[in-house]
Amino acid sequence: MIAIELRKQNAYDTIKKEKVKQIIQLASKQKSPLGLAMAYYILGREYTIDQDDSLSYSYLTKAEKIFTANNDTTGIIHCSKLLRSHTRRADKNLPKFYFDRVVALGQKSKYPIDNYMYYLLIMACDPYFKPQPTESQMAETLNKTLKMIDTYPHFEYIRANVYKNIQEGYLRKQRHDKVLEFALKVMHHTNKKIDFMDYQYLGNAYLSVKKYDLAIAALEEAAKRIKIERPMALMRQRNIYFFLKRAYYEAGKLKASIQADETYDSLVSVIRDNDRSVALFHLREKYSFADKEAELKRLALEKEIADSQKSLLFGGLIMTLVLVGIVLFFTIRLRKTNVELLRLQQARDKFYTIIAHDLRSPINSLNDMGALLLHLIREGKKQELDKVIQQMENMRQQTHLLLNNLFEWGESQYFINESLTQPKAFDAAASLQTLCNHYLPFAEAKGVALALVLPSSLLLKADQKEFEIAVRNLLDNALKHTPTGGKITVSGRSSEAGTPNHSIMIADTGEGIAPEQLRYLQQVYSGKIKPEVGVNGLGLGMILVYNFTQKNKVNLHIKSELGVGSSFSIFWKP
């Protein structure tokens, strides 16, 4: 199983993570540390290709510890080479440590595959080499590596990687003609399955020699393939569109360049929105600091009053009257401070209530699934185990959305009742397309159809970020409550002549909303009652939707029927 999955990865084919996790289970059962290390290494490399740094770093460090404990030189070298790229931005000493380890072990090892890892550093002109390798040294190392491949035919799979690394070296030396030469060799003189990365390398090479039409063709193919081969590799998609917009521009295709730039910007936004863990920490610290600051103000004022009261004992009648006035003044200030402190404490309690309410369900589910997983593993029920793993993936997605919502709610100035929203006109069609693309894999995994029906352009006036948060939560609710075989439709209608209304509708064929809860929601969004948070009220996601409608002055209409489905329609009026 290890050989099969590693062969897929070496061919840049998508591996099945369920198979690798099965390897982990078998290796643990059979007490095979090297089998376990290899599984961790495969997962670490897979997440490196997807540029999921946190997961990749976690699995690679686990693998490295086991390889080091078993003195497995090859495993140590391969993990160190990948870990070097992960630590480049975090610590200036760690990358140098991993580089030195690959060089030291790769030079003296008796295994050709270890020597190969050292040769790659020379061909790529790694920045840590002092002095840098010359072109003759690069060529000599290339010949050694190709000779090794000819001697050991089972190493044929590394030929493409050799050509890619020497491209990096020639790129550093500004030898763009050589970069293109080896990019073409990858395409035509290797036996690997050509993928989006090969087309990206080729497109960049053509771009560097100013062959813009060929660059555009290669980069367009890369953009098309990555959506099929690696749909979750958002940073790699961003890089492709960065070079594609430049190629369009240099070729004089300004309209296409602008469109590519818009796609690039949307990917940058999605990547930024996906990283919220640090932001949530700052959100929690923000309100903790507010509580401490209010308490310090109250204590300072009480001390001032105490000092003033002491001075009354030593003053005369006039001084007494003056001090009484001072006491009254500070008392009023203290009362205002206490009112503000009480409001902040209530806001804090509401914040904690929301966290407890929305995290209770996934935590309870996690506890139940832990016991169930242990039972299924012992019983060897693979089909049921796959279903539980899928449920855990859905729960992870929902928890991820919850953390994003907590951060956005804190950023929205909800606690201090101030609105910083500045509605501006934007094309909602692109935002809706990006959001649907994000949710499409989850819908497909659940067996739910996700359809998008939009005009070519849909100009709306609202805060774009708040709009996307609201739609994201409505989509998440629809997916959560729509069973397998159901359908979710996202549609939009732009204004017609004499009819300045715009609308966005998210409809599903799910379980529907109970009549009592539906009446409550309709009263909330029509402005008749204020929303409540918690068990008997709204979840954080629907609170954010409510905030969006209030701040941007739009209407939300809700229709639902049990067993038929629900629809949420957002209307813009003049």
Automatic annotation (TrEMBL):
Record keywords, A-Z: Kinase, Membrane, Phosphoprotein, Transferase, Transmembrane, Transmembrane helix, Two-component regulatory system
Pfam families membership: HATPase_c
SUPFAM superfamilies cross-referenced by the UniProt entry: ATPase domain of HSP90 chaperone/DNA topoisomerase II/histidine kinase, HCP-like, Homodimeric domain of signal transducing histidine kinase
The UniProt entry, under InterPro entries, shows: BphY/WalK/GraS-like, HATPase_C_sf, HATPase_dom, His_kinase_dom, HisK_dim/P_dom, HisK_dim/P_sf, TPR-like_helical_dom_sf
Q: Where are the transmembrane segments?
A: 312-334
Superkingdom of the organism of origin: Bacteria
Task: Enumerate the catalysed reactions.
Answer: ATP + protein L-histidine = ADP + protein N-phospho-L-histidine
This entry's Gene Ontology molecular function terms read: kinase activity
Write the Enzyme Commission number(s) for this entry: 2.7.13.3
Where in this chain does the record put each Histidine kinase domain? Answer: 354-574
Q: Which PROSITE patterns match?
A: HIS_KIN (PS50109)
Return the protein name.
histidine kinase
Give the organism's phylogenetic lineage.
Bacteria, Pseudomonadati, Bacteroidota, Cytophagia, Cytophagales
